[in-house]
Write a structure and sequence with these properties.
By secondary structure, the protein is mostly helical. It contains two helices and no strands. The chain has one domain.
Length: 78
């Protein structure tokens, strides 16, 4: 097993602790290993596809503004 000694910046430490808190990780080594693994997975050569079909119509589910600042789209440019 490789032993790696790092000198880190304060920003790195803040980001590392945020990752550990959000994921419930108690070990620095495990947190760094997870971050490296996930970073590598995101940078693979295989293209990722995203399905946003569930987003269609989401904005229509919210009620319209009862007191809009502009009555029509043309009024925005007047």
């Amino acid at each position: 097993m490789l032993q790696l000694n790092l000198t880190t910046t304060p920003d790195f430490e803040i980001n590392l602790y945020q990752l550990m808190n959000r994921r419930g990780i108690s070990n620095h080594v495990e947190a760094i290993a997870i971050a490296v693994k996930e970073s590598l997975e995101r940078t693979t050569d295989s293209p990722q596809t995203f399905d946003f079909s569930q987003w269609i119509g989401c904005a229509l589910k919210k009620p319209e503004n009862p007191h809009p600042q502009f009555k029509t789209e043309d009024a925005i440019w007047e």
